[in-house]
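To the structural biology subgroup,

Please find below the input and predicted structure for histidine kinase, which we are adding to the shared reference set this quarter. The sequence is reproduced verbatim from the submission form. If anyone notices a discrepancy with their own records, reply to this email rather than editing the shared folder directly, so we keep one authoritative version.
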Amino acid sequence: MFFKRLLALVSLSLIAFCAQASDLIRERGIYIDATDTLGIEEVVGKEFGRFNGLLQRGLTPKIRWIRLSIDKSATADTSAVLVLGPHYIAEIALYERHQGGWVQRFVGDRYPSQQVGCPFGQYCFSIELDQLEGNELYLRVATTNGYYVTTKLFDRTALNQENTDLALSAGLECGVLLALIVLSVLLFFSGGGMLAAVFLATQTVALLLTMSVLGVYTQFLTSETAWVDNFVFNVLYVVRLFFSLLLSLAFFKNLVAPAWYLNLAQIIVVVFIVQFCWLLFAPVSLTALAFNFTFVIFWPMVWLIALCQARIRPTMHRGLMLLLATVMIFMLWADMVPALGLTQVDRMLVPGNFGGLVVSIFMSFLVANEVRIRRLNNQNVATELARRQARNALEHQQVKERSMMIDMLTHELKNPLAAIRMAAGSLKVSLLQLPPAETSEANERISSMIQAIHGMNTVIERCVQVDSLDQKKIAFRPEELDLEDVLQDALRETTDPSRITLHVASPGLVFNTDPSLLSVVVANLLDNALKYSLPKSPITMTATLDDAGVFTLVVENIIGPSGTPDPASVFSRYYRGEHTHASSGTGLGLYLVKSICDILGGEVTCRHTVEKIYFLVTLKS
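Predicted structure (tokenized):
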């Protein structure tokens, strides 16, 4: 509904803009005074070319003479009003012949004045038709701020119609811009973010520029200070183009913009900043005006090419953006046709100003659609985030419940196992009093039972340690320790210390690390070597500490029946080799080694040859 009303306002504004009151001028001609020295008597005899409103394409200011041939018989009024625009022409001198001589009058921003009855943004001369000799008027135009000038001669009736049409057009144009500002505010608060904010700034500056174009500031604020009016107009024009550039960049926030486009945009931004600073010294620069004119014509095409190369999803959204961008370019170019001198200039005040207004309407469709797409994406992201948070909460609850279950099982299993182990030890001591021939078999069974109890304790301890890792309860508490003592203690705690040979590079190796965590690493590596090496084969553990303070521990053993593990999975949780299921195990030992090495700030790797397998731990103090 909002967009329908907006389009209705644009249609009414376009009708009012295109409405034309009857004009008394039959023919317009132009002559360029290259010397800037000719007077009216010398100019009258010159050959004038056809004038369509265009003043200049070059960057060098020149004096233009405009000849207006009028039709006095087209009206019954004896007085008329010559309406000239736009209001920011530097100087316009009117020459009309009375009683054999030429009368000269001035208007323009060098001659500011309050002109009652003159349309907004225009200059006016009252013409007494019955006192005018001949049918020709001459204008001498000196400007550094305009490319064209509109010339119309109205009787009083036509002037009233012109005022009404221009007032309606100006009111509707400002109304459309106000509606776009309201829309951009709504889009911003509905999640439009930076795109809606830049669009708001663009339309706000466009409204301020339109008021300058319509002469509001000249008539009410800067009527006696033409320099200020020029300065305000050019500043607003540069700022509007600057925000238009930012708006084109804002569309690529969630897209992958081509690198060349971003580089080119940075250069244009620098040019606008330099131009803005230069306005403080010279409010009018023909070079800057030419650059701005070129930017208005070509930048939309550059933006369209960048959109074609960008990855826009979904496809329907991409098609809509490209279609509307193409339509906007054609409409803007159509509005620029008079400024290029390809058709008669009637009411154009600023090149592309009305076309820019229509482009803003279509841009609002693009912005609204882009905001809708981004809002949907944000909703999807929020939904996914909520889903992940719920899943994380569920996993956290499951980890907590698993931890509680492990604590319960640990408590329930450790006490009976300890009692069984004590009973087995007492039984073994009692059997020592009997003859060996009678107790050998019983001793072997009791030893197997004690070894099985030790294995169950190891499994329980690993589960507790893994749970502590999951709960992040393991703290790193480093201290100075003798490495050989730690390694000897771990060796004695194994099930078969006789198979293990310890090599320490030099006695008295002191290293700063957590002793309890290092003991877990060594114990699991030795247990893994004892379990999966050939029975009764030797196991070697080598410890070194280099000058840089790097501690290296290598555990090597002969490869057993289970073969070599997968290097990519050997440190994964619950991983067990293809041929290891004949041996008891949980697949947690090497996972603990890797996790604790990460906590200690080190790393562990696995290597193997045809006969042996090596686990290498490296820690830095």
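Summary notes: The first strand starts at residue 25 and ends at 33. The first helix runs from residue 2 to 18.

Regards,
Lab coordination
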